[in-house]
Amino acid sequence: MLNTMARLYTNAIKVLRQTTRLTRIDPKLVRALEKPQRILKTTLKIRMDNGSVKSFPAFRVQHNNQRGPYKGGIRFHPKVNLDELKSLALWMTIKTALVDLPFGGAKGGVAVDPKELSEPELERVTRAYGRAIAPIIGPERDIPAPDVGTDAQIMRLVREEYEKYVGHAAPTVVTGKAVEDGGSQGREEATGLGGVYVLEEGAKQRGVDPRHVSVAVQGFGNVGSHFAHFAHEFGFKVVAASDSKGGIYDPGGLPVLEIEKRKKERVPIPDMGLGKPISNEGLLELPVTVLVPAALEGVITERVANKIKARSILEMANGPTLPSADRTLKKREIPVVPDVLANAGGVIVSHFEWVQNRGHEHWTREEVRSRLREKIVAAYLEVLKTAKRLHSPLREAAYAVALLRLM
Ligand code: NAD
Predict the structure, then answer these.
(1) Which of the following is catalytic: 86, 95, 107, 375?
(2) What's the gap in Å between 71 CA and the centre of ligand 1?
(3) Is residue 57 in contact with ligand 1, taking CB distance under 6 Å?
(4) Is 167 helix (H, G, I), strand (E, B) or coil?
(5) Ligand 1 lined by 343 (C-beta under 6 Å)
(6) 207-253, pLDDT tens digit by residue?
(7) Which residues, 6+ apart, have CB-to-CB distance to 216 below 8 Å?
């Protein structure tokens, strides 16, 4: 039986094929998208602090560069594998086309648990990875960014290794840099904030007051925490939140700023003494207006989909919904705002960072936010319009918009 990640890749391909049937897009184009253009696969041999040597599988998948340089994050997670990265890279191609950026799609990663490494060990892993991918990345070729388990500091190290390789400064080789390293204002929160702009537009379209919209957020990392922060700031009622240790629920609304503060002090969410403790599975089944999976792939299985009581789903994680679950949700008429749209804020602001670096410009946070809002809402409205025209779920409509741009 295929593992979850291979199933995700098969599903991604299936959605591509279904979309072709809906829109009469040239099947030859879709066949070209079924395989990544290049895969780099290697093993990093790293000296650990105790003198032993450990091996870590590492990858970079360059899916498609038809619309511009490959673009995609670097993931450090023990479960990183090639099938997962192939799916993530394909979704980047769809995402960048959907929000109309001059980029293609890529993804990379190392099968490592960064939490188990000392700081010097993490630096050695990152530099070794940077050296491994240096020959195939570049500001006009492939531009990595942070993803699960990586951050601005990791981007700095990758950039340094690339600069050593080419022998000159090249700040545009990565995005998601710290502001003092040439990063953009507003990049760190961009993915979460972009999702909240979509949520806000959805409420506006339905004429619903945000105070009457309850939201459950699974995952409180970069994406989930910023999503919860801005949802709260924009007046939505965040009633549940979780991290890998479990979650909490308060139908009256959670004190999001307090959760953020305690999380920075490294207190696991279920130990905060705020709200009623719930499991991560329990969170997915809460009676809320919007369910927001913002952690890892494949959490909404068919079994979970049958138990979901949320009125809609906003996918902030990549690939949280399995194919069989998607079918069940369609039958149950629970709309799903797909990942390729909902979490595109990160790559949109990565593009802003790249543009600012190349033009030696510095945009204000307000400017970044207003451009982000404009871009992601435009894509959302186009997906809604296309879904209406094709009588299709939002995911297929989003793929249709993207594929038409890739033709
Ligand atoms: P992160 O590493 O910062 O955070 C992940 C969070 O998920 C953590 O709070 C962790 O405790 C939690 N978690 C882990 N396992 C869990 C489980 N089994 N149940 C519930 N929570 C669990 O990662 P991130 O950058 O926030 O990314 C989250 C998702 O968003 C991923 O799917 C990623 O690909 C996607 N994404 C991230 C970005 C970005 O800019 N960072 C952009 C687009 C999409």
Answers:
(1) 107
(2) 19
(3) no
(4) coil
(5) yes
(6) 999 999 999 999 999 999 999 999 999 999 999 999 999 999 999 99
(7) 238, 239, 240, 241, 249, 283, 284, 286, 288, 290, 291, 292, 310
Quick one: the chain helix, strand, coil %, rounded to 5? 50, 15, 30
Any idea what DSSP says for residue 65?
A: -
Ligand 1 center to 68 CA (angstroms): 27
The pair phi, psi for residue 379, each rounded to 5°, is -65, -40
Residue 166 C-alpha to ligand 1 middle, in angstroms?
Answer: 32
Q: Is 45 a catalytic residue?
A: no
Return the pLDDT at 30.
84
pLDDT value at 163 more than 80: yes
Give the integer Cα–Cα distance in Å for 193 and 188.
10
Closest atom of ligand 1 to CA, residue 224? 26
In this structure, the residue with its CA closest to atom 43 of ligand 1 is 343
CB 142 within 8 A of CB 136: yes
- The sign of the dihedral angle between the CA atoms of 105, 109, 115, 121 is negative
Helix (H, G, I), strand (E, B) or coil at 84: helix
Atom of ligand 1 nearest to the CA of 190: 40
Please write the tens of the pLDDT for every residue from 25-67. Answer: 888 878 889 999 999 999 999 999 999 999 999 999 999 999 9
Tokens of 247: 């979650």
